Amino acid sequence: MVTKIALDETETCVDYIFSSTLLMKGIKLCSRLKKEYSGVIIDGHRVGLVIADLYSSIKDLDLFIRLRGDIWHEVNNGALSSWYNKYLVKIGDSSFIRAKSIISVSNYLKERIISRYPFLEQKITIVPPAIDVNFFIKEKKKKSNTIRLITVTNFNHWKKISPLIEHIDQFETLLKSIENISIDIIGGGKHLEKVVNYYIERGVNVNFHGYVQNVKDYLNTADIYFHLSKLDTFGKSVIEAQSMQLPAVISNSCGLPETIHDKKTGFLVNNPEEFLNKVYYLIENKKLRHEMGYDARQHVLDNFSPWIIGKKFSEILEE
User: Fold this and answer.
1) For residues 305 and 133, is the Cβ–Cβ distance under 8 A?
2) What is the pLDDT of residues 125-136, one digit of tens each?
3) Do domains 2-130+305-318 and 147-303 have the same CATH topology?
4) d(CA 160, CA 125)
5) 2-130+305-318: what fold?
6) Residue boundaries of the structural domains of the chain
7) pTM
């Protein structure tokens, strides 16, 4: 039997999520690692990885690492600049070398791992995140003349949300040139207030909703999804939006291109001008929006549904 344990991450695919202190995390982990287990799957790359590595070593269990974030990039670029995170990166290196298998959420992240550890290439398998396609399903919405653009992001990392500053002129142009348009930004974090204040100073009337639990309800009222991050190793929110039959306009950056079928389920853009042009194009072509939305849902069903991703995990463990 193989048990999956996550210590400092929140993801629906794990069996156990511990939110207590670091000491309690270690105690709970130790109590779960019984002799009948043959391995540990850790969903994360910081505190959880260090503890899982330690106990799997003590218990002589195989270690499987599912990696979602590029912690080396985050540390080196100041997103995780504390001595604590730098220390975790340093001692975590040995975990990757000892691991039985490394599961990367994207080809982009796989290449990032190989650039640091070229000798680990044979250990790495790509398994993207799955989403609950039976939950993220479009429901009939009230008729409205308003075109709604929406994005969901995390305001804790500046490289995720700095494009919201860089694209403010394009948002202002959309709001001034189209009578019935709404731009909704979902998400919370330490940089939220700074971004909101900047928009207030500029007088750009974008709707910041902060952290919300009912993301699906907001997606259900939207017409176009956009995602402009420069940090994402994959972009799970893009998959959720496509599952809700939304065409996506996203940055051609990091792991985001692996989430859509360019020109079929959405558009990849390289700068603010391209972003504005593609959004205008979708606004002016209602039929195209609906066609792309249908293809987007099918794209998710074919590539990111639980039964597809579950089979990939099963094959790794069976090997």
Assistant:
1) yes
2) 999 999 999 999
3) yes
4) 26
5) Rossmann fold (3.40.50)
6) 2-130+305-318, 147-303
7) 0.85
